[in-house]
Amino acid sequence: MPTSSLISAATDKNITAPIAKKIPHKMEIHNHHRVDNYYWMRDDERSDEAILAHLNDENNYADAMLAEQKSLQESLFDELKARIVKDDNTVPEKDGKYWYHSEINGEQEYSNYYRSTSFSGENKTLLLDVNDRAKDHEFYDLGDLSISPNDQLMTISEDIDSRRIYTIYFKDLNKSSESEDAYLADILIETEGQIVWANDNKTVFYVKKDLETLLGTQVYRHKLGSPQSDDVLVYEEDDHSFYMSLDKSRDDSQIYICLHATESTHYLALSADEPDGEFAELFEYQEQHEYHADKMGEHFYIVTNFQAKNFRLMKVAIGQVHDINNWQEVIPHREDVLLEGIELFQNFTVVTEREHGQIRFIVHTTQGENAGYQYPLSFDDPCYFACLDDNPEPKSTTARLYYSSLTTPGSLFEFDLATGERKQLKQQKVLGDFTKEDYQSERLFITARDGIEVPISIVYRTDTFQKDGTNPLLQYGYGAYGITIDPDFSSQTLSLLDRGFVYVIAHVRGSEMLGREWYETGKMAHKQNTFNDFIDVTKALVEQGYGAKDKIFASGGSAGGLLMGAVVNQAPELYLGIGAHVPFLDVLTTMLDESIPLTTNEYDEWGNPNEVQAYQSILAYSPIDNISAQHYPNILVTTGLHDSQVQYFEPMKWVAKMRELKTDDNLLLFKTDMDAGHGGASGRFKSLNEKALEMSFFISLLPK
Fold first, then answer.
1. Which residues are marked as active site?
2. Which InterPro entries does this entry report, sorted A to Z (predicted)?
């Protein structure tokens, strides 16, 4: 393989990679022995001087090895930043008697929030200056912003440590935004960040975090004017396989505690007019029953997988919801269509479906002389992403949808629900010389080794793509939790496309791109299908001329980082460079340790390795357990020290073991953001540095 200038320059410097000390840590279960020489790298407090020193050594080593491409990285950052509109705002949306929107200006990293008494902006009032709130923090995340039913009070939740532990503040909107006493004395700490208001405008409910597992386990009721120590615990969940959230029904009459495990759902409900009452089951809990319930008027509407793998829609009167035998079918189960969700309006229901991997929306008229009439909302591109935007007014006769494709910038449409007529309210502006017609997208199906067809989405610049096996190609994948990565526009990707890259999203098993079966055949004992799909897509794209065999790159983050770790163990020869971001790499050790945040909630995704079959299944692919003495691609690994989802020590240990065993001189670089967490750097410009880093790494690896 030809040598890139980056590898040659880095090798000439004769810089030595950090070598971690080895302290054997023995582990035994199911009569199987493992030794982890780098277990010592775990520090829950993130204060161990030896660990921090090693992370800093890795950062310094990466910077030194990448010094030759620093100017390219800076150029790419400037390029990415130059496409972003400095002064921008969202389209105002009506909620109650006010219109709400956000604005961002100049070099600001964050949006500020406003409301007005009309769409045109009359009586415009600043609700929250986020840049002022964030100015003293290296990391800042505004988790949630909510308005009381009477429009007089606002809550905001903030995370300043990147651990997704939020503090909630209350603000009196009758007072000037700059007023010292605009914020109430009420402060709620250690929360999930979400607030649901009761209809009395003085009672709120929130979820308290378990600071060890970082799961929300308790729901509290807070009365304005009282200290948090007086808050009443209204529900506690002892089963840590559930995530907990709060919600309010579409008609604002019910407050829900929503419990979601990977394969099960449970709702508890309370009248929003009686906040001092007790939450009660909406209906009896059943294992492996997944659903979403909502209420409009006298009926509940339930999207359920009960006797329906791809889900169906049911309707039931309020007083009969407890008995599943009373539920009436509105939309039946279909083998080839996944029912993803619904949005209720007084006279319409908008249904989100997916068929053959493509999302679509069906409008059902539910009231009036046209009741029963239904029709699809139409779009143009061969593959695209679309979703319902915020539609806070159930009485509305219009609905807003967000739309984007690999060649179409993000667009906000408003549909007349009675006629289907659409108008574009806004489209993301891309500064510079971007022209949609310069790019082409495709949807293909690649046959995997077991005969299953895997959908992929492709985009390239038409004047640089010849389909002759000469283009560099970047393949992205995720493939877990049933999360579908739809083909969405990214102005950042243009920097690769304009340099001749082909960009591919491999919709591998583990998502729900092709329905529920697509997810179930890509998890637990079937997880190897995810890796096979990704590898087989790469091989096919090379064979079909979409990419040059010596210019193939791959990238993934979190569970997609696990995908990268497995792929480089199983087919390292296919790739010139790999980007693995906040990667989940030590699957077996993590899933055996219930003290690590989120572990128990993941059993239905990866399996519980306390059971021997699940242990063997995970052991077969767990990236850190399958590193061997072989050649590996050039690899860039990034993480955040304060990551609450995938702990920093997973990639840290993986890199140390990789350095120990790999037999090549290819680059292995590890960058840790000492201030960030799972989502990376905060702010619209700061985060571009991470993207520019990966892009420059890939571009600099291209053979000369």
1. 558, 643, 678
2. AB_hydrolase_fold, Pept_S9A_N, Peptidase_S9_cat, Peptidase_S9A, Serine_Peptidase_S9A
